[in-house]
């Protein structure tokens, strides 16, 4: 895995999700103060973009069926989803958001 520059901090909304595509991965970035979470932007239940859903605290909810996921672990917290989604380590340097993404051929 390698940290990659994926967004400017100012572009990541507080308490909401920003959906981005970076090097073939769909990510949802969520800002909570000085922390940015990066989670796969697809619900494990119905392949719906999580970035279209609501954020509350450290959870993101799929807008279609209401499945909820922990932004820190990717764990499914509410049915109908039962499978987790990948999460990625982040860091902020200056005004830039970096995400530790798999190298080509690796899986998260």
UniProtKB/TrEMBL annotation:
Protein name: 3-phenylpropionate/trans-cinnamate dioxygenase ferredoxin subunit
Pfam family, one: Rieske
Alphabetical UniProt keywords: 2Fe-2S, Dioxygenase, Iron, Iron-sulfur, Metal-binding, Oxidoreductase
Cross-referenced CDD domains: Rieske_RO_ferredoxin
Top-rank taxon, per record: Bacteria
PANTHER family: 3-PHENYLPROPIONATE_CINNAMIC ACID DIOXYGENASE FERREDOXIN SUBUNIT (PTHR21496:SF23), FERREDOXIN-RELATED (PTHR21496)
Rieske domain: residues covered: 4-99
Molecular function per GO: 2 iron, 2 sulfur cluster binding; dioxygenase activity; metal ion binding; monooxygenase activity; oxidoreductase activity, acting on paired donors, with incorporation or reduction of molecular oxygen
